[in-house]
Amino acid sequence: MAVELQPLERQTFNTQQLVNKHPPRFEHPCKQLVYDIACPPGSMHQGELVFSRWPACTLPEHFDGRQLCLIEIREDYFGYEPSAHRIVDWYLNFAHSDVFAFYGSRLMAQDEMQVAEHPALASLREALVTLNLETATVENNQPTPILVQNVERRCGIAIDRNQDQYRPEGLYGNRFSQASDEAIRLATHVLHPPTITNILAIEAPSHGYGRYTMQDLRFILQTAYSGFTAAKTASFWKNNPDEIVIHTGFWGCGAYGGNRTVMTILQWLAAHLSGIHRLVYHIGDASGQSACHTAQMLLHEIGLSERSNAPLQEIFDIIYTQKFEWGESDGN
Known about the structure:
Elements: E1 9-14, H1 15-21, H2 29-38, E2 48-53, E3 62-63, E4 70-74, E5 87-94, H3 110-117, H4 120-130, E6 138-139, E7 142-143, E8 146-157, H5 181-187, E9 188-202, H6 214-234, E10 243-248, H7 260-274, E11 278-282, H8 289-302, E12 310-311, H9 312-320
Parallel strand pairs: 4-11, 5-9, 5-10, 10-11
Antiparallel strand pairs: 1-2, 2-8, 3-12, 6-7, 8-9
Helix pairs in contact: 1-4, 6-7, 7-8
């Protein structure tokens, strides 16, 4: 289901010049400390970073069951492993509607943690604002995905519980800003050399209540489908990849209060519709298996693998009749 797509905006930045001209601005000392560890004075930043922003894609009217994506479920979190030869990996940024807007704040959810580990994203944010380039991942109630290619990952941050390293409750969310300097130092591991990551930033709908509406379902699928299609298109700018892989997880299911099963089903559908080769679904731990099992059962009931031309509205109708409800924000 190929879609011809052109970006709304595309800019290439020399990473060293980007960092020099647009240094990050941190509001919280813990964020500054991580940056100082990952990017000490004299640090050299390699390569060119490519920023692009994309229009929403119109959902197809039918689902072609002959072009199914491989779904790989992992009980872990993003590892950002270097891509194998001729494979292009993309990692989701669980974005705000204003991309990377809170990188310097006390917050440390998935978005902010990704920027902390890829510090050139903070400089990119500053450059976009200075150059009056659009930073919205949603505009006029339509998704406008943002891609960042070839950004250095200069450190990893351990957020698990570890009494011996002064983080007995972990460092995720609000706990990060309350951590001691020693805890931050022990948790931040510098990468020598840095690895390279491709980022896909899309915002999930947030803070809904009660039953998911048909409009909710369509917007979520369109957002994921638009982002995945943009990533697929951009993968061919400098490469002729054998495989395009998107790494995601329970997008919008933390602070935004999304339903894990709904977000799983619709992301899997988006992966099939967009024509990417593989979706790696990082569920954290075994507690995430329940949502995946329910999603698998429902997609099996719909019979996607057995139908070559299923009307998409019929699929929406089946999902809607399940009466899925919004969850609650985890407060992070």
